Structures are given as C-alpha cells and as structure tokens.
C-alpha cells in the first residue's frame, strides 16, 4: 500500500491570524489627549484658586475699611439707647437717678488695702 504524501510544492499556508483592521487611534494618541485635557483642567484650577485668593483679599480689605464706620454706627445706637433709657427713667420716677448714692469716688472693697 502506498503512503499518502503531500502534493508537489506542499500544501497552501493555513491562515490562523485574523485580518481585522485596527479601530480607533493609537494608544499614544489617547495618552497625549488625556494629558492635554488634564493640563487644561489644572490650568483652570490654578486660575480658580487665584480668583478665590483675590476675592478673599478683597473681602478682608473691605472689612478693614468698613470696621470704623460700623463701630461708629454701633456707638451712636448705644448712645441713643442710653438717652432713651434715661428719658424713660425720668418719666417713670419723675427725676434723674444716679447709679451711686454719692458723686464721691470710693475704692471697691476688694481693691482696698487691708
């Protein structure tokens, strides 16, 4: 019996690889694009931090400049309330009252020498 042999010139090559086209961009392009997006984000973040610092500085200086005016307004309000209390006392009691019984200055007992 004769043995089976390959044909003259051999068999055709077997195609074992799939011939699919590459989809999308190359990986380095994705990496480069992600880097650009992150760089833009960091840039906007830095600008935002700078803006917040400027707003904080502006708020601090506005408070520094407004404090004397607000303090003066509060002082005027306290004086107005004090005069209103004195007027109310005079209406109720018929005379102006003093906190102490005399005008003489006396050292408090806790501070007096022993």
> How large is the count of helical segments?
1
- The value of Rg in angstroms is 47 Å
Strand content range: under 5%
Largest sheet: none
Which structural category fits the helices and strands?
A: mainly alpha
Average of per-residue pLDDT values:
89
Could you walk me through the main structural features you see in this protein, from its secondary elements to its overall organization?
This protein is mainly alpha-helical. About 60% of the residues lie in helices and about 0% in strands. The chain is built from one helix and no strands. It is rod-shaped, with a radius of gyration of 47 Å. The termini are far apart.
Structure summarized in a few sentences:
By secondary structure, the chain is an all-alpha fold.
Task: Summarize this structure as a short list of keywords or feature phrases.
114 residues, mainly alpha, single chain, 1 helix, 59% helix, rod-shaped
How are the SSEs placed, and which strands pair?
Blueprint: H1 27-93
């Amino acid at each position: 019996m004769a043995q089976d042999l390959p044909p003259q010139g051999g068999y055709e090559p077997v195609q074992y690889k799939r011939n699919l086209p590459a989809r999308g961009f190359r990986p380095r392009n994705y990496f480069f694009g992600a880097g650009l997006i992150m760089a833009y984000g960091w840039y906007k973040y830095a600008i935002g931090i700078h803006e917040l610092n400027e707003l904080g500085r502006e708020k601090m200086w506005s408070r520094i400049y407004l404090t004397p005016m607000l303090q003066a307004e509060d002082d005027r309000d306290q004086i107005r309330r004090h005069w209103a209390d004195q007027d109310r006392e005079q209406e109720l009691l018929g005379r102006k009252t003093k906190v102490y019984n005399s005008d003489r200055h006396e050292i408090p007992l806790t501070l007096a020498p022993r």
